[in-house]
Amino acid sequence: MWAGRSRLVVGLVVLCFCTGTIQAEERGKIYGWGNNVGGQVTVPVDDDFVSIATGFNHSLALKSDGSIVGWGSNYEWGGSLYYGQATPPAGNDFVAIAAGRYYSLALKSDGSLVGWGANGFGQTTVPVGTNFVAIAAGTTHSLALKLDGSLVGWGSNELGETTVPAGNDFVAIAGGTFHSLALKSDGSIVGWGYGDSVPSGNDFVAISVGSEHSLALKSDGSIIGWGNDDHGQATPPTGNDFVAIAAGIWHGLALKSNGSIVGWGSNEDWYHDYCGQATPPEGNDFVAIAAGGFHSLAIRNLPGDVNNDWRVDLVDFGIVSGGWMEVGCDGDNSFCSGADIDHKGDVGLGDLFMLAGNWLAGTPHLMARWELDESSGTVASDSVGVNDGTLNGDPTWWPSGGKIGGALEFDGVGDYVEVAGYKGISGSNPRTVSAWVKVESNGSTFSIVRWGTMESSGGLWSNVINADGKLRAAVIGGSVVGGTTINDNTWHHVAIVLPDKDDVKVEDILLYVDGEQEDTTVSLGSQTIDTAVGMDVLISLDGSVGLLDDVRIYNYALSEGEIGALAGVL
Questions:
Q1: Which tops the pLDDT comparison, 75 or 300?
Q2: For 566, phi and psi rounded to 5 degrees?
Q3: pLDDT tens digit string along 124-134?
Q4: How far apart are CA 502 and CA 509, in angstroms?
Q5: Residue numbers of the domain that contains 402
């Protein structure tokens, strides 16, 4: 995300009148508000966006097909110098985006980088290679995270902002005006450049950088801020129910676990005209946020997707039916159960019409991620949603013994994690399950995840490591087994993929170990996949002995490149 460089605007004559240009436009799944002098909050009309990025006077969005859309200004602020920052390259192989002051970056599925827009400091002259997994854009400098966990910086280095620290244990990056931050795998933060002081501790899970201030999200859901606080931008709200953060020039945003957005800091631009960038729209169906110069963006969930699985289907219809004709939904009526889709305080025809209007719509998304980094307690938190798991038996937390931070150990005697109310991915819908596993050869099967039912053919979805150490995906009536032995007491990354195709069968399931596709042995491969909405998702099962880390469920089929990135960066 971009952070402003205030000294560059001193003396500029800019016709910027926020009054009258305040926008709160919803087009499909993106919502924009704040300064719109360059059209940066006049959002595109499509409804299949998966991520967003905000520059100074331009915006970017990544679509589910891997293409990028840009809008807003292609020029400098208030001037005639053309940079082209809002005109992304063609293609549908992009997996991440970042927006700087007057430039943009993108990460491709093969791990290479692309840059466009202003290049006066070399900020879009990206390094060569295919080993990158994350990007960040500052004012005039850029950062990238490599597969091995190390960092690369390029562009302006006036105060050391691109002189990255050594090491290969970094997991996230953020760039500001003259300073940069990185999050390490142990949950601590490192800073460099101007004002490189950072808070102590190792309980941080996300970072964001503004112009001269920084924000960090802690594992307990609280936010801390530091740096320049002239506009209150470094004083975030209290509470421990936040799941995402974004820092603009003088404002901040936070996404809460209930899907609502909170803003703080300045609502004005350089010239003290009111823009409203720190005053987000109402609603509790937002899933992503971005803070730019003097504007903000958010992605809204699908209307009708009551259970937040990014698909409108029979599960959502059942929830609406269960709350039918209830009133007082804007109060404490628990019987509404989120079924008040149109937010009018009751469950009725309006909600049913919204449900029908988006029937079977959906967007590729990371549905759940259990990082398993807790140090105590009986809850395995879902870091991207609301599907927290409950520990059963006595599995043991290993706070620093995982592949990425901590891990959870199962001793084979009644140990498992139950994710109450989450039924996984149903029917023949595409999916990916990934995890890090560390299993010894002890003659027993190790279960990774399981859901569905055992009462119908094709109705179960089960991913395990066989007693002989081979990865296996099974349904009732068929299975696929890999060829690599992984019960060798070392960490391995595994992924199980069900492709998006008609009449998908057992023989179509793909297995990956350490980022490489497995040669498989298929049993009863013609069995169709029809995973039932049955048992809740179970992580591990009674009898499993070993360690699990970073368990993920996606509602789409990850590409080989995406799986390779997961296996290589962590």
A1: 75
A2: -60, -40
A3: 999 999 889 88
A4: 13
A5: 366-569
